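Q: Give me the 3D complex with cytidine-5'-triphosphate.
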Amino acid sequence: MDPSIFSVLILSAYAIYFMLPAYLANASALTFGGGTPLDLGRSMNDGRRILGDGVTWKGTIIGILIGMAVGLVQGAISGNIVHDLLIIGDPGIANLVQGTITSNAVQGILLGLVLGSGAVIGDACGSFIKRRFKVERGRPVPLMDQLDFVVGALVFTSLVVMIPSSLIIIILVISVFLHLGTNIIAYLLGLKNVWY
Ligand code: CTP
Ligand code: MG
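A: Here is the predicted complex, encoded as structure tokens.
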């Protein structure tokens, strides 16, 4: 295989691993959320809800906790293994992303916290923007629906670690496809009414 394609594949696999706390925070907010809305039903001056019924306390809190739990497991268990695998697979990539790999429980929880809270807050910001543009709760806005939580997670995480720009680009591209793929599966399983 062309070595550069191989490098992109390895960086892509690592991108998914790195983003797992954010992806699973987002997925668990969706799965376990519901109930009291985060905006407590309040509206802004424009007469529209601040966030809407799709952003709830339960989803937000569970999302952040799941992000921290996944980060903990990564830091305490898999971080060193992933680092060794990267060195075997592509030392250049291992070197590039070294600063983003957690290798103990405390680092892991901290990274999980910024990725998870960034994800749910980014998603809430997406809902805020949708409401200001008069988009009803649950109506799709392509790219923003796929990337609001990813951008939130990356912005929060940038406060504590330097994320290489090539990793950021791969994360943005992969996330759009992952999000579409999981939505199509959820639709086929009857968990969602629309495929997008
Ligand atoms: N969810 C939640 N709490 C959150 C985020 C999500 O409870 N903080 C749950 C809600 O049940 C929500 C579902 O996950 O309906 C899907 O989330 P999302 O697609 O972000 O919300 P939408 O319902 O599509 O609403 P919006 O238009 O505001 O994006
Ligand atoms: Mg939505």
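A quick observation: The first helix runs from residue 3 to 32.
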